[in-house]
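queue> pop job 88
queue> type: inverse folding (structure -> sequence)
queue> payload:
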């Protein structure tokens, strides 16, 4: 069977971002940025580049209406710098008024990576410490400990069959059930804020590798709705998908002059947003979920110091929050750069920052001041600095950052009880 184009469990996700976008209907985020009251640096710098349905999130931020922000981490090793971007996205959205949720995907780590429950708990706590060190406020949970989540996963499972799992993930008859279960648990994670609080737009910031889960969840959220609301020429049509007749009747009664037909109600006058809100309330009053289809954002991956992806399975590629200063320095100093073969060429042609793992480390996390970053780039491209010197400066930044961050993590760790 062919490998699916995006495999969330592969250590070398496809990198042809533009093709992925056009093939899967992910949209570039740049046209939405002017709608935000404040553009965070990770969007300004082109780190977060794509989205699905982010307009409803931008609107919620702008209008101060409720929205949720959720992401998850698989506790299959120590957290490292590669995890920091998603965490910052979560924290920023919480600061913009979102209700924060973070799930520790211990069921997935156990099912897919064979991690023991004990290790899951220990690593999970480290991820939480990172989050709190960054200023996260909100709800966190371990999948295995959340009973309502598991019930929601079971409900979601009524809407997914094996051929869909096969089409999306390339699952085969040999795939074990726990793996499938961890997928549906992730679907439930993404919908969970809407049952824990109230239905509201939910944004899930992820790397492109997680998009299959987003697509699956969006489908499930839609299937679990009783109604669809569509704007037609001059009227609004509310269609029943699997609503009990009393619920459809309630929709008819809620709107003056509405006409009820077999399986749908047509409404003249009124805005689509108002009708949607009322229909959602009626759905919930009749035992439905009233889910909003979740939104997502996609960020590019920070390259590992060895060139490929940052992955715990290649220790030289990552910088974790738990390594000694000397190792950190060594790793940065031996990182792959965009420098030229010889010093003479470097001076003549300049370096290539977009290809440099250290420049990207600065762009992602180490240099928050835009002017300072632009200066690093300029000097590199003008051949005014050697990679040796530039790496040394980067190493100092990383060491200083980690020292401060680790202190904050240690403080946070004391408050985490699991
Ligand atoms: N599958 C994700 C990973 O491999 C972890 C995860 C679990 C997650 N639930 C989630 C991510 C919900 C985003 C949203 O890291
Ligand atoms: Fe990278 Fe710095 Fe070398 Fe430029 S000068 S390629 S940014 S290490």
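queue> result:
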């Amino acid at each position: 069977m062919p490998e699916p184009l995006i495999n969330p469990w592969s250590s070398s996700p496809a990198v042809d971002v533009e093709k992925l976008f056009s093939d899967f209907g992910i949209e570039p985020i740049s046209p939405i940025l002017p709608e935000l009251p404040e553009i965070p640096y990770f969007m300004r710098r082109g780190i977060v580049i794509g989205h699905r349905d982010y307009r409803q999130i931008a609107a919620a931020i702008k209008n101060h209406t409720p929205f949720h922000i959720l992401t998850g981490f698989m506790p299959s090793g120590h957290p490292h710098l590669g995890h920091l971007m998603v965490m910052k996205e979560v924290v920023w959205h919480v600061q913009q008024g979102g209700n924060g949720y973070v799930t520790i995907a211990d069921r997935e780590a156990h099912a897919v990576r064979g991690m023991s429950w004990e290790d899951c708990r220990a690593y999970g706590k480290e991820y939480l410490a990172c989050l709190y060190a960054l200023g996260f406020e909100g709800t966190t949970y371990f999948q295995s400990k959340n009973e309502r989540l598991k019930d929601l996963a079971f409900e979601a499972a009524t809407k997914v069959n094996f051929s869909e799992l096969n089409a999306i993930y390339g699952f085969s008859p040999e795939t074990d059930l726990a793996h499938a279960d961890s997928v549906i648990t992730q679907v439930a994670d993404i919908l969970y804020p809407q049952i824990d609080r109230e239905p509201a737009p939910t944004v899930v910031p992820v790397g492109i590798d997680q998009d299959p889960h987003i697509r699956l969840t969006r489908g499930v959220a839609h299937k679990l709705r009783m109604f669809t609301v569509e704007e037609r020429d001059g009227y609004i049509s509310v269609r029943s998908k699997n609503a009990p007749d009393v619920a459809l009747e309630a929709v008819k009664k809620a709107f003056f002059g509405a006409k009820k037909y077999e399986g749908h109600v047509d409404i003249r006058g009124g805005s689509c947003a108002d009708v949607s809100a009322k229909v959602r309330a009626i759905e919930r009053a009749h035992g439905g979920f009233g889910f909003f289809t979740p939104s997502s954002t996609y960020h590019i991956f920070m390259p590992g110091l060895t060139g490929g992806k940052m992955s715990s399975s290649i220790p030289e590629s990552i910088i974790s929050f738990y390594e000694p200063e000397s190792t950190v320095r060594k790793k940065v100093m031996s990182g792959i750069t965009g420098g030229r073969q010889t010093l003479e060429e470097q001076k003549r042609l300049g370096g290539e920052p977009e290809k440099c793992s250290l420049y990207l480390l600065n762009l992602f996390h180490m240099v928050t001041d835009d002017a300072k970053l632009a200066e690093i780039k300029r000097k590199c491209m003008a051949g005014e600095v050697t990679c040796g010197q530039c790496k040394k400066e980067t190493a100092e930044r990383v060491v200083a950052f980690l020292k401060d961050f680790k202190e904050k993590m240690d403080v946070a760790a004391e408050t985490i009880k699991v």
